[in-house]
Request: fold
Amino acid sequence: MSDASDIPESTRLLAEQAGLAKALKLFPDGVKAAAERGLKPLGDPPKGHVPTASPAPVFDPAAFEGKK
Amino acid sequence: MTDLAYLTVAEGAALLRAKKLSPVEWTRALLDRIATVDGHTNAFLTVTADKALAQAKAAETEITKGRSRGPMHGVPYAAKDIFDVEGMATTCHSKIRQAHRATSDAFVIKKLNEAGAVLLGKVALHEFATGGPAFDLPWPPARNPWNRDHHPGGSSSGSGAALAAGLAPAALGTDTGGSVRNPATCCGIIGLKPTYGAISLNGVFPLTHSLDHVGPMTRTVEDNAIFFHTIAGHDPDDPTSTTRAAADTLKDLKTGVKGLRIGLIEHFYTEDAAADPEQVRGIEQAADVLRKLGASVKTIRLSPLSLWTDCNRTIHAAEAYAIHERDLQTRPEDFASLTRNRILAGGFVSAAKYIKAQQLRAALCREFAEAMRDLDAVITLSSLLLPCRIDDQAAVLKTYDQQCRLVFNVTGTPAISVPTGLSASGLPLAMQIAGRAFDEPVIFRIAQAYCEAAKTCISDDPNSQPRIVAAKAAAE
Reply:
């Protein structure tokens, strides 16, 4: 197990910015691995994918009016 | 009388209606079996014996008077400990939630109460429905009844184990990246992830709001259709709940598959990732069975499995982190290491990446809908690998993404895991049958025809049951 001093500076800064200083101190390897996974870019989208497409969960204000 | 441990919902309901079995007798038999066998499986976190017997007595009184509340009336079931039951802790199998007390029932628990079902207790899961099996929590992880040294799948691990061990005929699970279908696969039972919105999420502790689904778990397809029909339906308090009337999953259940068009998504396990040859042989044989039953089965292609995985995992990480951020900041040591390491990744997902993943989700949904234009359903593997040893953390970590289940959490469309047999080492094999949104009746119909022909479900035949449990129960 490494200690927090072995963690790349960029990861340390991101972790601290996210309020994860305690997790970084106690579990540096876990935070390092989590950062690698979280920062990994998405794969190439399917052909014809339009990046301006709406997000999947369509917001429907009427859905909140179900119960009066 | 059939062995009450492996009595199905349908058989039990028929016996109850005919007054040849009392709900109290059935409930007591299962409570006795839990006391005898569950030291072997660790399926239950809490057994609600008094409540169960009171509910069974109430059902008995009503049935005796000729009042029927439907096919779950007097039928025992177990609930993953992520569903609120008034007055009980919803622990989510976590130290962090031990002091919690629910102030009301989850919507599906209310539905089951109205249906006269009998809650046997709350069952184990991977902490917060992610990251198990863990040995650094207040309760041990559930074990696989087929071989207790092996992973029962998760996160609805206790639900799968309880069903395979004959401790309950039905159990509630939840599924965000495969958490109903994974234990169904590993334990050789039936697990449905329904269409997003078909079953209310109200009163269920969330993992990932936009990917979470409640799912019924049973030993037979017919039981699953009954259980689904009982808990599905609109909940005005859940904005994600559909206003569509729940489809009748029993009407055409036994009409066969003749003429149905089924797509086989083969590249997930032949090109995109390496699969265990026994799993592959299982689905190949299943495709042959479906052809012999009169369905057409043709190979189709979707985007590579890795893209579906990226999409699911990015949304999962970001939304789960949002739920647990405060605890991860202030008390990270109170999570199991597997859970903490998984959820922490969301702290490093940018808002832009999350939105891109949601946009990718929309593109993948369109792609799937297009592929389904000329099909009634698709089949593919569930797990790529066999259930690994439960104490082999590296192997457990490998299973998280070596699977084809999360694809249908991305699309939000229904998918069911059905057993395709046993491996040479005696561990369950399985495939998924998936379909269009709200087309659960077709999924059930195919699953029913396949399981009836292939006879791969656990039944009252001792040869179909986990041998270790059978041996242990017989010894006692």
Remarks:
- Chain A has three helices and no strands.
- Chain A has a mean pLDDT of 81.
- Helices of chain A lie at 9-17, 21-26, 28-39.
